[in-house]
Amino acid sequence: MKKYLDKSLSAQERAEALVSEMTVSEMAGQLRYDAPAIERLGIPSYNWWNEGLHGLARSGVATMFPQAIGLAATFDTELVEKAGDITATEARAKYNVYQAYGDTDIYKGLTIWAPNINIFRDPRWGRGHETYGEDPYLTTECGKAYVKGLQGDGEVLKTAACAKHMAVHSGPENLRHEFNAVATPKDMEETYFPAFEALVKDAKVESVMGAYNRVNGEASCAHSLFMSKLKEWGFNGYFVSDCWAVRDFHEHHGLTECPAESTALALKAGCDVNCGCTYQHIMTALDKGLITEDDIRNACVHAMRTRIRLGMFDDVTEYDSIPYEIVACDEHKAVSLDAARKSMVLLANNGVLPLNRDIKTIAVIGPNSDSKIALEGNYNGTSDRYTTFLTGIQDRFDGRVLFSEGCHLYKDRCSGLAQANDRIAEAVAVAKRSDVAVLCLGLDSTIEGEEGDTGNEFSSGDKKDIRLPESQRILLSEIKKTGKPVIVVCAAGSAINIEADVDALIHVWYPGAEGGKALAEILFGDVSPSAKLPVTFYVDTDKLSDFTDYSMSGRTYRYCSDNILYPFGYGLSYAKTEVSDLSYSDFKATVTVENKSGIDAEDVLQLYIKDYCSDAVTNYSLCGFKRVKLSAGQKLTVTIPMNTLCFTSVDDNGVRAVRGDKFTLYCGTHQPDELSCKLSGTDCVSVEIKL
After folding, report:
1. How far is 502 from 490, CA to CA, in rounded Å?
2. How far apart are CA 270 and CA 210, in angstroms?
3. 25 in a structural domain
4. Cα 391 from chain centroid?
5. Does residue 18 sit in the same domain as residue 148?
6. Does 368 share its domain with 476?
């Protein structure tokens, strides 16, 4: 038996044995994302590129969960882990079938390039909805949970997760191939690094992906600080470039002169696998003396070690028997529906919700009403059945539902030969004939997302501001003039200011294939809304720092003191939850929570720490959270684990240490700021802590 087939050996030993049988040219080929077969060694071709941010993506039918930002809004790490586990299960089911048919194409492997744990620092970033929001701790906990779900706890990895994009990366999209993000040591250690460190140290993530941009002058995919940090944290997987990012070294960043030099820079720094075509020049770089055979060998060992950990060279694995029929099964869809219910944030409600049973006619109006794309987000799979907002309401409501598209998502007309605002008259007529108007507005992934994917004429997927497109602003204004109650359902992966007072406002993100059913259940009171904002909703982006400024000063709830429309952590419920009797002991907080209503509900308890030392964040930081389920009138005592870094601060040199000796710990169903308390109608409790 070949040594690399011996399961009694470590993955490292097996990988070294396998690579020792390869020629240098064969090793080099295995570092391409589309690695060719080595038939003489029994190694099939393998494509490293697969996606699964919120369900298995780009590989046909799969269970589609809410986009990652929606999963973050649940503040439910158990649910996030379950979504990751289902994604991995379906990836294995499809992989088993693909292997049986000899199909090793892109998006059909077991190396899932998710989660995206970049910090959503600016609401204009189009890819922000791929992330878990603006807070390092929430991002960390969601990221760890998703990695755990993807990788499993079996003898071999269920799939190999990937923490991306290391590390100071969040737009602008149209500049990313040439952009140099300038970040201070403090901001890197305090904001941009924590999730990556935790996913490497705690979740044992199998892969890390570099970003397109430079950071402080160095390419992210060949960054000396990033690579040294990974070594310091004990990273033991493979490092992969973002797609065609190494090509940017010579074509846009001006760091090298040619592909061979770019290959050498990346490979010697520690980039093992190249998503792109630049590593086709490895042998040229070797011939020129820019790299050594050992550089190639080390990277190849890392790559093959991951494939061995996935059981690819074993006769049988515990996942080989997962049947194709499990893909998009009812059990998996039920989890997607649960996630959608828990992801939708009720931002405003004057009492119109839940809808009165006496309502006879509902108007459903707007470009996202019957849109499948508004459910999907990006990096998505395909559902075998979509429940749009319109069909969800139609399925749930016994009365008459009148529908009008109302307007195009962003153009001034729906029909090319018509005059501007060609659906307004119909929309007004529908609204006037109804008891209530549900306006389904917002964005979708055709105008908000990654450069090259959106295909829009705006900002390469980024947003210029946080306003609704003009066509929708006109529609909203005209419907409000009818005098009928207006409920706005905003589908978007980021902060939106609808610039209007309405009777109710629900932000539903991109809620997955079951989104329409979840929305209807919330509208009619079958489910009480329970999600919280994982990002700050600002009033006006003009009051923020320039998009290209990576300083955290004035950004996110930890540093921003004004220009806030809806705060991070905020979200209303139909129930009334009150907290009391907060105490602290050994990185755990204990609090009493009571549902002071006649409605069964879930809510999210949130802990925030205020550090009074000079190096601390301006406001306070989330340091713990727990989703709780409360029956009507129920009272519980709950213990919440706290971030073990909560008493540390980071100085200007990027050194983290405990410097303060006096802290205030807050607990509530939102932040302790004045606006959150006012909007929620409830207060937080607090306790002083002295170290």
Report:
1. 12
2. 11
3. yes
4. 26
5. yes
6. yes
Quote the CA–CA distance of 141 and 206 in Å, as a whole number. 17
Strands (E), 132-204: 162-166, 180-181
Task: Tell me the CA distances in angstroms from 231 to 46, 219, 239, 274, one per residue in order.
Answer: 27, 18, 12, 20
The angle, 0 to 180 degrees and rounded to 10, between the axes of the packed helices 194-201 and 136-151 is: 30
Q: Looking at the structure, do residues 399 and 436 belong to the same domain, yes or no?
A: yes
Taking each helix axis from N to C end, the angle separating 77-100 and 330-343, rounded to the nearest 10 degrees, works out to 140
pLDDT of residue 458: 61
Q: What is the predicted pLDDT for the residue at 456?
A: 54
Contact 519, 487 (CB under 8 A): no
pTM passes above 0.90: yes
Non-local CB neighbours of 43 within 8 Å, separated by 6+ positions? 18, 30, 37, 313
CA distance 400 to 113: 45
The torsion of the CA quartet 484, 485, 490, 496, rounded to 10 degrees, works out to: 90
Rounded to 5°, angle at Cα 252 from 250 and 254: 55
CA dihedral of 466, 472, 478, 479, whole degrees rounded to 10: -90
> Both 529 and 584 in a single domain?
no
Beta 577-584 vs 588-595: how paired, if at all? antiparallel
Longest dimension (CA), the chain: 80
Is residue 537 within 8 Å of residue 557, measured between CB atoms?
A: no
Q: Which residues in the chain land under pLDDT 70?
A: 454-459
Q: Cβ neighbours of residue 428 under 8 Å, at least 6 residues apart?
A: 478, 479, 481, 482
- Give the residue numbers annotated as catalytic, written as ranges: 242
- Determine the Cα–Cα distance for residues 619 and 232; give it in Å rounded to an integer: 30
Q: Are 116 and 68 in contact (CB under 8 A)?
A: yes
The residue assigned the tokens 């006769």 is 315
The count of domains in the chain is 3
Looking up tokens 């999600």 gives 531
E strand spans, 521-661: 537-538, 564-566, 577-584, 588-595, 601-611, 621-630, 635-641, 648-650, 656-658
- Is residue 614 helix, strand or coil? coil
**C-alpha span between 383 and 368 (Å, rounded):** 17
Helices (H) and strands (E) in the chain, counts: 20, 25
Please give the pLDDT value at position 357: 84
**Which residues, other chains included, contact 688 with Cβ-Cβ below 8 Å and sequence gap of 6+?**
662, 663, 664, 665
- How many CA atoms within 13 Å lie on the side-chain side of 341? 20
d(CA 128, CA 14): 39
pLDDT tens digits along 324-371? 999 999 999 999 999 999 999 999 999 999 999 899 999 999 999 999
Give the C-alpha separation, 274 to 247, whole Å.
Answer: 10
Boundaries of domain holding 665: 577-690
The answer to whether the CB of 494 falls within 8 A of the CB of 129 is: yes
- Picking from 485, 518, 535, the residue at the C-terminal end of a domain is 535
Per residue in 170-187, pLDDT (tens digit) is 999 999 999 999 999 999
Interstrand relation of 504-507 and 486-491 (parallel, antiparallel or unpaired): parallel
Q: Under DSSP, is residue 639 helix (H, G, I), strand (E, B) or coil?
A: strand
Same domain, 308 and 404: no
Give the pLDDT confidence of 193-213 residue by residue, as tens digits. 999 999 999 999 999 999 999
Which sign does the torsion angle of CA 344, 349, 351, 355 carry? Answer: negative
- Asked if 402 and 429 touch (Cβ cutoff 8 Å), the reply is no
DSSP class of 274: B
- CATH number, residue 662: 2.60.40.10
> 8: Cβ–Cβ under 8 A, 6 or more apart, which residues?
none
Q: Is 624 helix (H, G, I), strand (E, B) or coil?
A: strand
Q: Which of 441, 469, 475 is nearest to 457 (CA)?
A: 469
